Amino acid sequence: MSADQSDDDKSEEATEKRLSDVRSRGDVPISREVGLCASMLAILCFLVFVLRLRVAEFMPGLFNLLDNVSGRRLEKGEDALALVSACALICVAFLAPPVVLLMFSGVVATLAQAPLQFSPHRIAPSFARLSPAKGIARILGRRGLTEFAKGILKISSVGLVAGFVLFGKVGLVLSSVSVDVATLPERLLNLCTTIVASVAVATLALAVADLAWTRILWYRDQRMTKQEVKEELRQFEGDRLMKARLRSIRLDRSRKRMLAAVPRATMVIVNPTHYAVALRYVRAEGGAPVVIAKGVDLIALRIRQLASDYSIPIIEDKPLARSLYAAVEIDRAIPPEFYKVVAEIVHLVNERKFGWSNSRNGAEQ
C-alpha cells in the first residue's frame, strides 16, 4: 500500500484473504477490558468460594509462628533471614491460589477472543517504534485520544459504582464500631465482596461494549482500496489459471501414460462408444484381471481404436463397462464381484484366437 493512501480511500470491505493474512501475522481484535472483567470475576470467585478456606489455613500457621517468636534466636543475620523466609512461605501459600486464578482468567479471556498463534515478527525489535515523533503522533492521534477517553470512562464508571456501594453501606461501616471485634473480618469480607461484585458488573458492561467497539475498529482498519481489491483479484485469477493449467498438464500426461499401456491389454470392454475399459489377464502372471486403461467418450474411442490397431479383442457389454469404469481405478485388480462375468469373457476370448470384435452373445461386429 502506498503511503499517500488515506482512510477515505479504503471504501471496500476486506476480503477473506486479507483478513486471513492479517490474522496470520498476529493482528487480531483483542479487547483489554475483557481481560480486566475476567480478572474481576476471578477475584469475586476467590472472595466467595476460596478466601474463607484459605484464611482458616493461613491464620493457625501465622499464629503458631508468632507464638514461637521468643523461641527463635535472632543473634545473626541468618536467624533473621530464616524468620523472614518462614513468614514468606506462609504468605506465598496464602497468595498462590488468587495469583494462579488471575493468570488463568487472563489467559482464558485472551484465548476466547482469538486463537493462539505464534507470530515472531510481533516481538521482533523495530527501531521505528523508538521514534519520538511517531510515539507522540500515536498518543495525540485519533486512536490515542479514543483510548484516553475510554480510560476516563472506565475509571469514572468503576469509581461511581464503588462510591454508590460504599455510600449505601455507610450505616454498616459506622455500626462496626460498637459490635464485637470478632465479627469485623466477616463484615469486612461481605463489604469487599459487595464492592467487587458491583465493580465486576460494571466492568462486564464495559467489556461487552469495548469488545464490540474493538471489532468494529479492527474491521474498519482492514478495509481495502478498490485498487487493492483489483490487485488481489488479479493475483487470485492468476493463481487459479496456473493451477488449472498445471492440473490440465498432469491429466494430459496421465492420459498419455494410460493410452500407452493399452497395447498390453488382453481385452477391452466397451459400451459401445461411450465407455471403454481395457483389462489385462495373463494366467502365467497370476492374480485377477487388472484395469490398465479406461475412459469415456473421446478417450473411450481412442482406447477402442488402439485395441483395433493392435488386434485386441473388443467385447461389448454395456452394464459391465459402466460398472468397471465406476468401481475400479487404473492399475487395480477387479473386485471379486466381477470375477464370474469377467471369467466368462476370458473364456470367450480364449476361444477366439484372433482379434475379432465380439458382443457378449457372440455376435460379430
Order of the strands making up the biggest sheet: 5-3-2-1-4-6
Radius of gyration: 40 Å
Distance between the first and last residues' Cα: 70 Å
- The number of domains: 2
For the sheet with most strands, the description reads: 6 strands, mixed
Protein structure class? alpha/beta
Order of helices and strands: HHHHHHHHHEEEHEHEHE
**Rough outline:** elongated
Low-confidence stretches: 354-365
Helix content: 55-70%
Q: Find the count of extended strands (DSSP E, 2+ residues).
A: 6
Mean pLDDT: 79
* Beta-strand content: 5-15%
Tally the helices: 12
Notes on the protein architecture:
- The chain has 2 domains: 12-114 and 130-224, no CATH class; 261-359, name from scop, CATH 3.40.1690.
- α2 runs antiparallel to α8 (184-221).
- The protein contains 12 helices and 6 strands.
- The radius of gyration is 40 Å and the shape is elongated.
- It has 365 residues and is an alpha/beta fold.
- Residues 354-365 have low confidence and may be disordered.
- A 6-stranded mixed sheet has the order 5-3-2-1-4-6, sandwiched between helices.
- The protein has helices spanning 16-24, 32-67, 77-113, 120-123, 132-140, 142-168, 170-175, 184-221, 226-260, 298-309, 318-327, 339-351, and strands at 267-270, 275-280, 290-296, 314-316, 332-333, 357-359.
